[in-house]
Amino acid sequence: MPLHRLRGHHGRGTAGRRPPRRDRGARMTIGPGALSQRSDRDTTGGIGESTQRPDGHLKVTGEFAYSSDLWHDDMLWGHTLRSPHPHAAIRRVDLTAALALPGVHAVLTHHDLPAATHYGLEFTDQPVLAQDVVRYQGEPVALVAADHPETARRAAALIAVDYDERPLVHDESSATAPGAPVLHPGRTDHHAAHVPHPNIVHRQPIRHGDVAAARARAEVVVRGEYEVGMQDQAFLGPESGLAVPAADGGVDLYVATQWLHVDQRQLAPVLGLPAEKVRLTLSGVGGAFGAREDLSMQAHACLLALRTGRPVKMVYDREQSFFGHVHRHPAKLAYEHGALRDGTLLYVTCRIVLDGGAYASSSPAVVGNAASLGLGPYEVPHADIEALALYTNNPPCGAMRGFGAVQACFAYESQMDKLAAELGLDPVELRRRNAMRQGTVMPTGQPVDSPAPVAELLARVAARPLPPERPWADPAGPTAAPDLRELPGGLSNTSHGEGIVRGVGYAVGIKNVGFSEGFDDYSTARVRLEVVGGEPVAVVHTAAAEVGQGGVTVQAQIARTELGVTHVTLLPADTTVGSAGSTSASRQTYMTGGAVKHACEAVREAVLARARARFGTAAALEAGKVVAADGEVLATLAEVLGEEPVEIEREFRHRPTEPFHPRTGQGRGHVQYSFCAHRAVVEVDTDLGLVKVVELAAAQDVGKALNPRAVAGQIHGGSAQGLGLAVLEEIVVGPDGRVRNPSFTDYLIPTILDVPGMPLDILELADDHAPYGLRGAGEAPTLSATPAIVAAIRQATGLPLCRVPVRPEHLTGTA
């Protein structure tokens, strides 16, 4: 099927478009070079400059084409039938009525799968379509392809499924009780040997020092139990894509994802095809934050396309999206901190229980992060840590920004505030006295061998001037009429300033960067330097998923810096080039940036070698010219290249890591650490239980800001998601295992009215092990924003507040 028949717009390349229809918005053309983005029109600048994003103008004007805008004249529409029950046996499935509906082209169940029946990120425990049992509400049971999306939905509703509901596993006690239903009998994954019960996905203990001896020396001990609710990634662009069957028997999938090659690795066995016949191209991604690491509609669309011989498009609505992707693990955490009277930490014990839901997803890695980062950015000589994830009949949980460290940070920072109060110390001072630094040994035995400016970050946020008091804070009575927009709940006219108190809170967090525990983490880049229209152009090709983080900007900046050119073309991210790994773990600038840098360096050396053969000398490429060591211009780059471009592909790997020991947790498990501190200022209406975050200041070390404006945007975005977890966001799962709020009407995320001023201090303390000295920046602010806000609410109200999100009933005593 010729690719020129696919339509739309992404960057440039709009040939063959039909007139736009107002009800569909932008369309995306898929074809050779159609996703290329020539960055020379409105972006210039190299490393260290705040260059404009090549996709920025299109996104802010609404012209950017996302995966939901994909179109093909011959396409069918796919729809997934999902289970209404969280745990049930499937007795019978009757497709008769659905198949009889006019316009239906295919209805598939697990009986129609051509090859492998399961997939998974870390091990293959998740069915493509449910077979004899469903394990969570929303599990896919059947697929429909029809000539109209409404026809597909109607056909799915006509499928009759006879279920026999089973007892629920919903928490640790029900998962591990004697006689509890085993959700995955016969597990064969390598984690199974190290867990005490088959309903435990993974368990990671860490033993460090001598806790018993330290406990005997402790002069002050504080204990606390904490809970973190289930947060959703809440990206605005729903899961969507277009699968096109190919003449060679394979399939071309255009999809919004975070990791093209891991999708391909999971899809090929399910489709019964060799990997080279499952070709993926990234389409416009409307946010991700971890939820697009797992498969959603990818296998379903491909199966329907191969069965019907027609392109199949799938687009989830918002409710389907809530059921169709993983969420942040809800957690219960129990901590004990022991210290001397001067505040010196002696030991910490903790137990972290994460609810992984029905399938493993990335739970083992989340457990590893929660355990290894569970003490926070502090020097703790003795520790006893246990983290584990459960299989339950709740929605599957996996990757979300912060990845296990978010849950731990809320608990350990709450403990630090509790310890400061017990000691009568300023909470910032207590943290500074115990702050880790370069050379600190982590509880895993790994030394921190790059800058760790924890104390400085805290000092910077603490030294900022506080925002001015509001008129309603005057003890003599309001001195001016309040601006309702500035009041907690004021836009609803619920308060005019009565009962409002202010609080200030602090927190700091530590997050790893990149994939850990011995994973072969690498990225690939192919760079070509050629002459186009008499000008040198760098062409960069990687499989890195641009999900809004600005990787396309950084890749072009690196090429300009390393090759001395102005014009850079970025080819579509697809599986025709080697893997770039996932756009997660704050790793893409480090890893794909490192790969682009290495490939550019190799191209540069090849060009210089060609120039040396011609001129006898050549030292650098600058501003499109080849120059000698003394700065003499030898020739233009176009003259040296001529009709013979230089193209080189390189892989980049970070320093090797190793798995944590399954019993002691010792090992050099992480490649890099990042740190962020926050100070939150809040105002609380104590009568109504409403919170207004007045300011959320942050200080973060980023090693090197390759694009300072983009770095600031990452810190702001992570802080906003931390704010959401603190006071707004939670997927509510009832005791019957059913989700109560799968919509943006009932699942609340921060809007522009909720996000306060966010002043920043950005430090650049180079990590000598990283490209350009950079440090992954996207996740760390998500950690510390939440506990800083809750600490501020505690100070304002005097309430213990051991659970997030903090709800109005927690503040008014009605919970």
Automatic annotation (TrEMBL):
<protein>
    <submittedName>
        <fullName>Molybdopterin-dependent oxidoreductase</fullName>
    </submittedName>
</protein>
<dbReference type="InterPro" id="IPR016208">
    <property type="entry name" value="Ald_Oxase/xanthine_DH-like"/>
</dbReference>
<feature type="compositionally biased region" description="Basic residues">
    <location>
        <begin position="1"/>
        <end position="12"/>
    </location>
</feature>
<dbReference type="InterPro" id="IPR017609">
    <property type="entry name" value="Xanthine_dehydrogenase_dsu"/>
</dbReference>
<dbReference type="Pfam" id="PF20256">
    <property type="entry name" value="MoCoBD_2"/>
</dbReference>
<dbReference type="InterPro" id="IPR008274">
    <property type="entry name" value="AldOxase/xan_DH_MoCoBD1"/>
</dbReference>
<dbReference type="InterPro" id="IPR046867">
    <property type="entry name" value="AldOxase/xan_DH_MoCoBD2"/>
</dbReference>
<dbReference type="InterPro" id="IPR036856">
    <property type="entry name" value="Ald_Oxase/Xan_DH_a/b_sf"/>
</dbReference>
<dbReference type="Pfam" id="PF01315">
    <property type="entry name" value="Ald_Xan_dh_C"/>
</dbReference>
<feature type="region of interest" description="Disordered">
    <location>
        <begin position="1"/>
        <end position="56"/>
    </location>
</feature>
<dbReference type="InterPro" id="IPR037165">
    <property type="entry name" value="AldOxase/xan_DH_Mopterin-bd_sf"/>
</dbReference>
<dbReference type="InterPro" id="IPR000674">
    <property type="entry name" value="Ald_Oxase/Xan_DH_a/b"/>
</dbReference>
<feature type="domain" description="Aldehyde oxidase/xanthine dehydrogenase a/b hammerhead">
    <location>
        <begin position="61"/>
        <end position="167"/>
    </location>
</feature>
<dbReference type="Pfam" id="PF02738">
    <property type="entry name" value="MoCoBD_1"/>
</dbReference>
